[in-house]
Design goal:
Blueprint lengths: L2 H15 L12 H16 L4 H15 L2 H9 L8 H28 L3 E9 L3 E9 L7 E10 L2 E9 L2 E2 H14 L6 H12 L5
Antiparallel strand pairs: 1-2, 2-3, 3-4, 4-5
Helix pairs in contact: 1-5, 1-6, 2-3, 2-5, 3-5, 4-5, 4-6, 5-7
Amino acid sequence: MLRSSLLATVVALVTGTLAPTIPAMAGSDPVAVINNLGNQFQTVARNPSAAQRLAGFHQLFRENFDVPGLGRFVLGRFARILNPSEQQEFLELFETYVVYTYSSRLSELAADGGIPRVTGSRLDADGAIVSSEVIRGQTVQPIRVDWRLDWRDGTYKISDVIIDGFSMAVNGRSELEGVAERNGNRPQAILAVMRQECANVDPP
């Protein structure tokens, strides 16, 4: 039920992070955040140990994404209804599901030779947007990937990824609203679905 929105999260991570090295203060330069994330991702994807790849993907997600902010946005109005422990459980389930389900796919796409290129960046009221395109082969149309980064505590964190105009955060929010609405507008139903999804996931 939640695969489309969560898959978008991971596809965005794949298509936007296989970037060349740009030595810079990554936390203070939004372009360097994306490029340095790509370098780290390539290193993790090449690890022959599935367990170490999985641990590496968890670390990259925690370090580079604004997980609490993204979770609050995706939950929308339901974030105010869940108590703090339920909110924390949701964030953990969200991260676990994404990483466990698609870490092997991330490795495949990394090995497949996708070549991204940052095409520009601009500041906005909340932080910055970094635009890029992913080129995979001579005859395939490039994929546009825009990264929204928010300025948090002296560093940039990724808060949304938009692939050819498709927002991961907005789509995820719509998916979760649908889950709650089909269950009497109870946000606890979101947790129940997430628990089930995570229980059915096999590690790579």
